[in-house]
Amino acid sequence: MDEIIMVLYSFHIGGDCEAFEHSYQEYLPQQKEFPGHLGEMLVRPENERASYTIVSKWRSASFTRWLQSSYHDSMVSMLNRFKRERSSVKKYVVAHSDKVQVL
């Protein structure tokens, strides 16, 4: 069976945070409809308005297909318009989950 992974994409943006959040909401429907995408949320530290982390839940093989898609390319273009510093991407394998549904 395909592993379930969590992908954390963290970055700092420059410019208008409201415009960034609006742009994120614009691309999100494409990602939500991509086969194997299991959920997503955009979070930021309570007192750091310009720091964000996208937390996505995927079937592992589907995430690989997403990375190779034109949808992913358009998302990266959207994010890079706002990016101020180098971003980081980390993948986590869900080893165990009990009653807490993260997404």
Provide the helix percentage: 25-40%
Supply the CATH architecture. 2-Layer Sandwich
In CATH, what is the class? Alpha Beta
In total, how many beta strands?
A: 4
Q: Secondary-structure element sequence?
A: EHEEHHE
CATH topology: Alpha-Beta Plaits
What does this structure look like?
This protein has 103 residues and is of the alpha+beta class. The protein has a single domain (4-93), classed as Alpha-Beta Plaits, CATH 3.30.70. The protein is built from 3 helices and 4 strands; from the N terminus they run E-H-E-E-H-H-E. It has helices at 17-32, 60-67, 70-80, and strands at 4-12, 37-43, 51-59, 88-93.
Task: Explain the layout of strands and helices.
Layout: E1 4-12, H1 17-32, E2 37-43, E3 51-59, H2 60-67, H3 70-80, E4 88-93
Based on the model shown, name its key terms.
4 strands, Alpha-Beta Plaits, 3 helices, globular, alpha+beta, 103 residues
How would you summarize this macromolecular structure in one to three sentences?
By secondary structure, this protein is an alpha+beta fold. The protein has helices at 17-32, 60-67, 70-80; strands at 4-12, 37-43, 51-59, 88-93.
